[in-house]
Amino acid sequence: MIDLFLVVGLAAAQGSVVAPPASAQTCQPAISSPVPEDPAAQASQAPASAAGGTRATFLTAPEPSYTVGIDDVLTVRFWRDEAMSGDAVVRSDGKISLPLINEVDAVGLTPLELCGRITEAAAQFIQSPTVSVIVKQINSRKVYVTGMVARGGAFPISGPMTVMQLIALAGGLQDYADAKNVLIVRTEAGTTTSFKVNYEDLSKGKNLGQNIQLKPGDTMVVR
């Protein structure tokens, strides 16, 4: 599994804002530059937000287009309320279960949007809640490999991944695979398309434009 952490904290708009711990850095809920690999470096670069409103602390983030999906594992934390905090797996109906709040729709939301929804629901029971949503494991975004490879199956994809990278993850092509006719099958908006890739050329550094970036749900077929 791939462990990724995106921490977003929101304070309720009613009454005085409860500040996060002094050690936490706050920033606007948007990332305009790539996230450094070193969390400490990211914290030191985070600008201070205006008083009140949305507060967010980013340690490291999935790609900007990431939205919560089925089977993803999230950690929801309520500052100074361990009883309300814990891990939540996104169920097949798109919801997560939380103490006191019960069920919350999660699928299709960004972590920041989900944090806002949880904060709003918690405000009915807790005065000025401060909530963090951590993306712990991304299990919903996968690409698939079938056919003449060393290891077929589903592979998590949390960021950019190319054809050559996926073949490497799958352990390479088998000896008698048709390396000149690797097929990428993609379904979007109910329409299925396919792309032929000559892996033999790619492995020799030729026609590198074939080394396309894959999307979640893509299937690679090696015959």
Can you tell me about this structure?
- This protein is of the alpha+beta class.
- It folds into two domains: 8-137, wza like fold; 142-222, Outer membrane lipoprotein wza fold like (Roll), CATH 3.10.560.10.
- 14% of the residues lie in helices and 27% in strands.
- The protein is built from four helices and twelve strands; from the N terminus they run βαβββββαβββαββαβ.
- It has helices at 39-45, 111-122, 163-169, 199-203; strands spanning 8-11, 54-56, 73-78, 86-89, 95-98, 102-105, 130-137, 142-147, 153-156, 182-188, 191-197, 219-222.
- The two termini are 28 Å apart.
- Residues 1-60 have low confidence and may be disordered.
Q: How many helices does DSSP assign?
A: 4
The CATH architecture designation of the largest domain is: 2-Layer Sandwich
- Counted beta strands: 12
Strand content: 25-35%
| Topology-level CATH name of the largest domain | wza like fold
Q: Can you summarize this structure?
A:
This protein has helices at residues 39-45, 111-122, 163-169, 199-203, and strands at residues 8-11, 54-56, 73-78, 86-89, 95-98, 102-105, 130-137, 142-147, 153-156, 182-188, 191-197, 219-222. By secondary structure, the protein is an alpha+beta fold.
